[in-house]
Design goal:
It is a single chain. It is built from 18 helices and no strands. By secondary structure, the chain is mainly alpha-helical. α1 packs parallel to α12. The protein is globular. This is Permease.
């Protein structure tokens, strides 16, 4: 979900009535409740309990995350040309939007625009405080090693997208104007909030601060995000701070509605369908593949990666809780499923199509480049997570 608007394209569900995802989830939840034989008061009770079960936690994550993203988008300092690709995963995660990260870095990326695109996409899906934190909150997972697993996955997954682009000759050849300018220390200024965020999270993982509640809060993801957002806001021009905060409130409000509806849908779903029906083996590789497929279906149906994170995790939470799937595997199976695919119903497609792929001779070629790369990234990550699950490493 982003503030960037693009032409509306036909989605997979375009043959159905044209309604937002949140409306579908509300109607399906109520319909499933009555179909299963629940009374009207019971349907309302379960829906109400599910709707509000995690909104407070999500508000504590999304408000500072979107404030951080808005402040970073108004930074006056610009990374050096040579840092554009290297910073793209961090920007994708920190700005909580691959679209915004790509738009900020592509003007200085030269021939590496597709590297920036796949890096922004991978960072948003795999790094804190974006995909893994949002999904983990929806699943009620608090493993302090999640940021580390995301970093481990990032490099091979990002590389898979970049190698795909080169294998089909989508990256332009080196030319004189593509040579990077020297890197200076000012180029690293936008990274300061992320460095502080990482330091606080590492401190929280290494030291038990439960006896000092304020420090304990500030070294948890929610508190560390608040500190990082505050730093970014102070570095933002004062005239823009109110605008940044209002943008954060708008984006958070719309997502909280999606999350509430998805959580209510999940609460009723688990009353209607048994866990064994959705997770045949209840654990292991089949559970990972089931979550990957569920996330893929949501992504293909409505395009938005953020809405996919917001909707899938609350739906899957009661299923994961009732099974023996590894928490880490569950989080990243959902994140990796959301990679598939970068299609015309995704705003990111149009942004990259009109910039890095402006010379592509057809939309088919652009889809081949972007969707092929996204699938390569998803399958690379899935193979790594699946292997680790089978080997008992996670």
């Amino acid at each position: 979900m982003s503030d960037i608007t693009t032409p509306r394209e036909r989605a997979i569900t375009s043959y159905l009535p044209d309604m937002p995802l949140v409306i579908w989830m509300v109607l399906l939840a109520i319909g499933m409740g009555f179909y299963s034989g629940m009374s009207a008061p019971e349907v309302i009770r379960v829906f109400n309990t599910g709707f509000g079960s995690a909104l407070g936690e999500f508000a504590l994550i999304l408000l500072p995350s979107f404030a951080l993203a808005a402040a970073l988008s108004r930074q006056s300092s610009t990374p050096a040309k040579g840092l554009a690709a290297a910073m793209s995963p961090i920007a994708g995660a920190g700005m909580i939007c691959p679209d915004t990260a790509y738009a900020a870095l592509s003007p200085i990326a030269g021939r590496q625009k597709l590297d920036v695109a796949f890096g922004s996409y991978a960072g948003f899906k795999l790094l804190f405080p974006a995909g893994p934190l949002i999904v983990a909150t929806g699943l009620s997972v608090t493993d302090p090693m999640l940021p580390v697993y995301g970093l481990v996955l990032l490099v091979p997954v990002w590389l898979a997208g970049s190698l795909w682009a080169r294998s089909i000759n989508a990256v332009p050849a080196m030319s004189a104007e593509n040579i990077s300018a020297p890197v200076n220390l000012q180029s690293f200024r936008p990274l300061t909030p992320f460095a502080v965020l990482a330091l606080l999270l590492l401190t929280g993982a290494a030291i038990d601060l439960t006896n000092t509640p304020v420090l304990d809060f500030l070294t948890l993801p929610k508190g560390a995000l608040l500190v990082a957002a505050t730093l970014a806001m102070f570095d933002c021009p004062s005239a823009h701070r109110r605008t940044c905060l209002e943008s954060a409130v708008r984006r958070t409000g719309s997502l909280l509605l999606v999350i509430g509806a998805a959580t209510a849908f999940g609460a009723i779903l688990i009353q209607v369908i048994s866990v064994s029906a959705l997770f045949p083996s209840g654990t292991g590789l089949m559970g990972v593949l089931s979550l990957f497929a569920l996330s893929t279906l949501f992504k293909l149906a409505q395009g938005s990666s953020m809405a996919t994170f917001a909707a899938v995790a609350p739906v899957a939470a009661p299923l994961v809780t009732s099974s023996n799937i590894s928490n880490v595997a569950a989080v990243f199976a959902i994140c990796l499923g959301s990679f598939i695919a970068i299609l015309p119903n995704d705003s990111f497609y149009w942004l990259v199509r009109r910039d890095a792929l402006s010379e592509a001779d057809s939309d088919g070629r652009a889809i081949w480049v972007l969707t092929g790369g996204a699938i390569a990234q998803a399958l690379t990550g899935l193979i790594l997570i699946g292997t680790a699950t089978v080997a008992g490493l996670i």
